Amino acid sequence: IWRHRLQTQIGAILLSLTTLTLAGTGVYQYFQLRASQMQAIDHLAEFSAERLADVLISPLWNLENEIIDGALISEMKEPVISTILVKNPEGKIIAMKGRDLDWKVVTVDVEPRAGEFAFEQFKKISKLNEELGMVEVYVTDRFVHEELRGQILSMVALIVMLDLLLLIGLSLTIRVLLTRPLGLLLQAAHAIGNGDLTQAIHIRQQNEIGQFAKAFAQMMQQVKTVIGEAGQAANTVASGSEQMSLSAAQMSQGASTQAAAAEEASSSMEEMTANIRQSAENAAETERIAKLSAQ
């Protein structure tokens, strides 16, 4: 099964580690970028409030509402600025600009609620130590989130692309450096198990796999040598056994010849014994006849 293959397992481990590393780096960069963007927006709100506090001194002193509105509209060219309002020392709103649904600058009459926007900057407007009013700048983090969302999508696409490239590269590398050499060694091992010692292993790597292949080839050669020596010893033993069988047959034949000779000698002895006995009987008969003749 493909999931049990060494190439798949190593590739999955390396791919997981790489993905986790890239994801961790991406998360870190996300928070770094978010903090940087938020800090930039906060500085923008502070700078806008300070600039308006300087620009609006003369219009507030002279109560020039058109100039005040123009200054607010000009400042809201920055899209992150959602609302700007100007109050008199009593806290009454003199001018206020906000955004509609299309994010265009319009005149609004509803004061922002506390905590409604990500950043708020308040700056007093004064001349000759006399307070003329207060400018309030409200900045949204809407565009920051949109930019960060785009960054996240780009980061995910980059991780997926790098994972695909890494997967292809790892597959080719593992196949060349690991899977193919191990396959050749496995094939040779099966051949040895089936009694075939003629398999040649062609692995020219200088790493651990190459060293293992070299040792495996030496082992095959040693096994072939041992089997050859064992065959020669078996042939020698067989030849000795054949010679021993021939010697035993010769000894058996000699024993049979000796037994026949012994049997012939025994027959001759019996014949001699019979002749001696007959001679004795003849002698005794001759003596008896002689005695009778003498009487």
List keywords for this structure.
five-stranded antiparallel beta sheet, 12% strand, 5 strands, 70% helix, 295 residues
Describe this structure in words.
The chain is α+β, with helices and mostly antiparallel strands and 295 residues long. The chain contains five helices and five strands; from the N terminus they run αααβββββαα. The protein has helices spanning 6-55, 57-62, 65-75, 142-193, 208-294, and strands at residues 81-87, 93-99, 105-107, 119-127, 130-139. It has a five-stranded antiparallel β-sheet with strand order 3-2-1-5-4. Helix 1 packs antiparallel against helix 4 and helix 4 runs parallel beside helix 5. It is rod-shaped, with a radius of gyration of 59 Å. The model has no long low-confidence stretch (mean pLDDT 79).
Question: How is the topology of this model organized?
Answer:
Elements: H1 6-55, H2 57-62, H3 65-75, E1 81-87, E2 93-99, E3 105-107, E4 119-127, E5 130-139, H4 142-193, H5 208-294
Helix pairs in contact: 1-4, 4-5
Shape: rod-shaped
Q: Pick out the low-confidence regions.
A: none
Helix content: 55-70%
Strand order of the largest sheet: 3-2-1-5-4
Concise overview:
The chain is an alpha+beta fold and 295 residues long.
